Amino acid sequence: MHQFKSHIDKLRFSGLRPTKQRLNICKILFNRKETFHFTIEKLKKIMEKNSNKKISMGTLYNTVHVFEKKGYLKEIALKGNKKYFDTNTEKHHHFYDEDTRQLIDIKKENISVNNLPNTPEGKKIKDIEITIRVENNNQKQKK
Ligand SMILES: [Zn+2]
Asked: How far apart are the CA of 6 and the centre of ligand 1, in A?
């Protein structure tokens, strides 16, 4: 019941009515120990599998984007047209596995960035987010 209240609070703070569907979204996003990286499509699949009910993309988009604005989720900048979101809102970097399309967190302190270029005039660096793309190492098979 305890965590339930915090989900309701999150929704209320975000100006969203705590409907059953939105509470289910919260459970999937925030009731976990590990970071959760997801696209809206993936979230939809998980939701529908769990509840056996259809859920509209609109509801998902809306809830996720409002959470992102409120800082409960972070959007990850990735090449390509799929938007990924992250329940880890701390500054950190990622491995992106091109074979499985999974993101894996890298702690901020595990990468150091030197030699930064001057920013364009009138601009300052807001954030540096590094994505290291990885693929299966098939060297062993190439004998
Ligand atoms: Zn992450």
From this structure: 22
